[in-house]
Amino acid sequence: MELVRNWFSKFSLDRIQLELMNTAYGSGHASLSRLDPRGLLIWYLFFAIVPWFVNSLTVLAGMCLFMIVTTILSRVTPFIILVLCLGLIGQVGWLFIISLFFGGDISSALPLLKLTLKLSVVSLASITVFSGLDPEKISDGLLALGIPAAFSFSLSYGYRILPVLFEEFRNVLLSYRLRGKAPSRPGLLHWRIGVYYLKLLVYAFFPLMLATAKRSRTTVEALETRGFSYGLNHPEAKKLKLSHLRFQMRDILFLTGSAAYLTLLFWIG
C-alpha cells in the first residue's frame, strides 16, 4: 500500500506542468530533432494513413515495434506515454466488453488486437514527430510543404501556449483552494473530496478563458508590431524564413532505412 501511495504521489500539478514544458520546449536534445522537418512530416503522413489499410498482424506488429524505437529516440516524457496507454486501454477495453455483452466471445479479441496495433502505430508516430521536433521546426516544415501560413503558425502557437495555459490553470485552481474550504470529512471513497475538486474545475474555467483571451491579444499585438502580417503574405519573407531548411545525409539515411525496413516487413507479412 505504501508503494502504491508513493507512486500516485508523483502525479501532481507540478509534475504534469514540468512534463508538458519538457515536451514543448525540451525537444532539442532528441535524436530526431536534427532531421529536416519536411522529410519527417512526409514520413509521419505515411504512418498516419497506411496502417488503416493493412490487415496483416505481422506487418502491424513490425510497424508498432519500429514506432516504439523512434519514440525512444524522441525521448518522449513518461506522462505522454501514460496518457497514450490509458487512452488505448480505455478505448479498446470498452469495445471488448461491449462485444462480450452482445454475444461475442474470446475470438473477438483478434480484431481488437489489430485495431489496437493500428491505433498504437498512428499514435506513436504522432508522438515521435510532435515530441521529437521543436514547434518552430514543425511550423516551418508545414509551411515549406505548402500548408497555409496561418494554419502552420496556429499549430506552433497552440503547441507553445499549452504549458503556459496549464500554468495559468494551476494558479487559478490554487487561488480557489486558498480562499475556499475543503470538506472536513472525505466521506466514503473520498467522494466529498472528488465533488469539491470538480466544483473547483468548473469555477476555474471562466478565469482561465479570460486569461487566455488576454494572452492572445498580447501575442497578436506583439506579432503585428514585428511585421507578422507582412511576412505572412509576401514570398520574399517566406523564402528568408525557410532558408535554413535543407536535406542532409542523415535525412536520406533515415528515410532510406525506413523504406528498406518497411519493404522487408511487407515482403515477410
Question: What is the gist of this entry?
Answer:
The chain has 269 residues and is mostly helical. It has 13 helices and no strands. InterPro entries: ABC/ECF_trnsptr_transmembrane.
Record the SSE blueprint.
Elements: H1 2-9, H2 13-25, H3 37-49, H4 57-74, H5 78-101, H6 109-132, H7 135-144, H8 149-179, H9 191-203, H10 205-225, H11 228-233, H12 235-241, H13 249-268
Characterization of this structure:
By secondary structure, the chain is mainly alpha-helical. Helices cover 77% and strands 0% of the residues. The protein has helices at 2-9, 13-25, 37-49, 57-74, 78-101, 109-132, 135-144, 149-179, 191-203, 205-225, 228-233, 235-241, 249-268. The radius of gyration is 23 Å and the shape is flat. The termini are far apart.
What is the general shape?
Answer: flat
**How much helicity do the residues have?**
over 70%
Biggest sheet character: none
How far is it from the N-terminal to the C-terminal residue, by CA? Answer: 45 Å
Q: Runs with pLDDT <50, length 5+?
A: 1-5
Order of helices and strands: HHHHHHHHHHHHH
| Radius of gyration computed on alpha carbons | 23 Å
Number of strands: 0
**What fraction of the residues are assigned to beta strands by DSSP?**
under 5%
Q: What's the overall average pLDDT, rounded?
A: 77
Number of helices: 13
Secondary-structure class: mainly alpha
Question: Keywords for this structure?
Answer:
269 residues; mainly alpha; flat; disordered N terminus; Cobalt ABC transporter permease; membrane; transmembrane
